[in-house]
């Protein structure tokens, strides 16, 4: 057993010396131009942000569904078709989107000048849908709209409770896509 110990130690020592020598040579070797990445260095988080900005909401949702299902080729194909980028750029963009998930941010709509009085007073549309629920006994009504928020719904509720049911119904109709009849039914549940 002792006879094998010495040659084994020599063999390990030679292996360590070879590894250290290889590292030292690699460190001092001059870089060749073909060793460098020809693509511009770009932070992958920055690439993910710019890639996500090129997608509409449906494309964004479908792309992340494909990434979540592990279908990288499908995601690359979708990105390529949606943006018209090349295959390599699409691959890099999908890789960055997978590594740095991005929430969908709607593109700001271009501002259009108001042409008449009605356009100036049109309700604002929010990037989310607000749900208002009213119930009395067994009757429950719900209004879901992206033109409602807590403040507007609070004003409508105050109108209804102060006895101005028609004004509240008109305001609710203006800030949602429901008819005046449906708004009156909803407001009737708020009056107390």
Structure, explained:
The protein is built from 9 helices and 2 strands; from the N terminus they run ααααααββααα. By secondary structure, it is mostly helical. Among the domains are: 44-99, no CATH class; 122-190, no CATH class. Strands 1-2 form a two-stranded antiparallel sheet. Helix 3 (57-68) runs antiparallel to helix 4, helix 4 (72-83) packs across helix 5 and helix 8 (165-174) packs across helix 9 (180-190). The protein is elongated, with a radius of gyration of 32 Å.
What features would you highlight for this structure?
single chain; about 190 residues; mainly alpha; two-stranded antiparallel sheet; 2 strands; about 60% helix; elongated
What summary fits the major beta sheet? 2 strands, antiparallel
**Number of helices in the DSSP assignment:** 9
Specify Rg, calculated over alpha carbons.
32 Å
Q: Strand order across the biggest sheet? A: 1-2
Helix share, percent: 55-70%
Distance between the termini: 97 Å
